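FAQ: What does a multi-protein file look like?

Like this. Sequence, then tokens, then the next protein.
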Amino acid sequence: MRTLIAIVATLALACACSNPSARQQVYGAETVHLGESLGVLGWNTSISNLRWQDDYVLVDVDAAPSDPAKPHADTRDIRFGLYGALAHPMEATGNGSCDGVKNLVIQSLSAPGGTRLTGTVCLGPMKDRAAVRGVYLYSPRDRIADTAAAYPAAFPVGVMPTKESDTGLVVKSTSVAAWRADGTQLTQASLGDPAAFNGSGYMLLGLEAHTIAAKYRDDSAGRGGPMMLLAAPTLPAPGLNAACTAYGASVLILPEASLDAVHINASLCTQGDLNDALLYATVAIVGTHAAVWTVR
């Protein structure tokens, strides 16, 4: 009898190791160690060689379509972020992430022919090295069906506290600031000026998202991935201001798995026509697929 139990246990372990669905997950995101490969967003991806230069984290990426005949995420949409106990999310779109980093002798991430993704991604600036546990990736254009909820984020109020029953998260604005494209800051008094909102401009939203970690873990596992925040409208990089490039229009809600609570403070940018970017801005909470590479 003991021999039979041992055989069954061994077979179960072997099945778990060979079954991709049995991989460790962080809030529904498949997780492997740096240097290993997994399939996500239609790409078979490996992330390796995490190192620091000045106050930036550098990682090497090598990816190819899992099946060339099937759809895969556009390389221009893939965002990378630092995983760990960070005070503020640190993300960047892979292509162009190293453009502002000086004194680098590397091959920046590129997609030659659109059939391969290879090169180095730069994330930072980041001074707290002890907080970094790895790197994650996702695409703001990848949405899990029937998980989205959108909210008005009009200047100068931003997002009012959302109902946890909507998405499992409570999200609210902590700050709202807006500028015209020429650098003129807009205030609440600007709402009385009919000419103030002509032309282009941008708005920076400080956002807070929180919930109970155990609940978020269960919800994400059932959903198939974590949630992300999406601000709209936006423009392609470089956009109207360096702050919009730095903060972006999306952020993944993926805190370090050992934390007891999910509590994220993030900044997002809306930009474009002033009426659209300030008075008709929205923030959406949407489920997405993601992957994490952790330090051993």
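And here is the next protein:
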Amino acid sequence: MQIDRRALFATLGTAADRNAMPSEALADALEHHMIESLDAEGTKDELKVRLGTGVLFGGPLPDAPTELKKLEPMPEKPTLVDFFKYRFAPPTVRHVLQSATDAMKKGEREELILACLLHDVVLNLIKVDHGWWGAQMMEPYVSEKISWGIRYHQALRFYPDPSVGYEYPELYNKIFGKDYVPPPYIKQAYEYARNHKSYMDARMITVHDIYAFDPTMKVSIDPFIDIIGRHFKQPKEGLGYDNSPVAHMWRTLIFPDTPL
């Protein structure tokens, strides 16, 4: 929803008053303002989908189509590349390809390049806690370093690390607002990851993440085919049919229109 920041600030007093408020109070004020706005506008502009809905199911994403197009049938034994071709929405594909391209150009190791390629594709399925969902979705098929990095990149992206040149993205100020404070579980995940031996496996995903929002950049899956072949354990039965603990997640993407 659009936030009327002037209206919100008017409820908080002067700039000095706002600066003196703890983050929890600011977050509560923002929540109350959003609830009041929904009460005022809800009857005329009902949500058609939940904001956490995956992109393939109509979840909102910048430049995503407003109408769902008919999907191409998947091959009998779908591979990861098939999902890129037939199920991952263009905005998501463009973003992760740009991220992986940046990692490749800067000479990162292949596992990190693959982690950049995979870090956000779960957004096609669900947006809530996409780091955790994304890691779970990939765990049977990639190394622990890759899945660990995907899991914790979600929390780390909200916290700068000057040692690798990562600053808080200005894009997040536009999306969440300059007053945004991540919830406690995100902070806890950050603090855990920050002191973990694999910290850089997640941090470097965030580094390459911020260079991956150019709508004019031409990208392709082709440069990554060999890396996928070396580091992604493609099941012989096809993704979604291998009876892994996450096969149902891939099948959900194969059959998003099935009501069963």
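Q: Is there any per-entry metadata?
A: Some entries carry free-text notes. For the entry above: The chain has two domains: 5-41, 55-254.
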